[in-house]
Design goal:
Order of helices and strands: HHHHH
CATH topology: Arc Repressor Mutant, subunit A
Helix content: over 70%
Shape: elongated
């Protein structure tokens, strides 16, 4: 079954599950005000340090840096609307 899954999806079951969890974490970082511990728990990872490491492996940026960039983009958009 593992081999069939890998042939069908191009990755292991565990790799697929990790990818789904990282996608959900990215969505939560973008759309929620949940802190990193809450996001870690929400995606089913027990360790915040493991979550940070895994997220950085997937996106080449830490979750905190990712959220900081999101916040900067939002401030920039807000500033644009205030200037018009």
């Amino acid at each position: 079954m593992q081999l069939e899954f890998k042939e069908l999806y191009g990755q292991s079951v565990n790799g697929y599950i990790r990818a789904v969890k990282m996608k959900k974490a990215k969505e939560l970082l973008e759309e929620s005000i949940m802190n990193l511990s809450q996001i870690t728990h929400a995606i089913g990872i027990a360790s915040p340090s493991y979550f940070r490491r895994l997220f950085k492996e997937f996106y080449q940026i830490t979750p905190s840096e990712y959220r900081k960039r999101r916040d900067q983009k939002l401030k920039g958009k807000q500033h644009q609307y205030e200037c018009h």
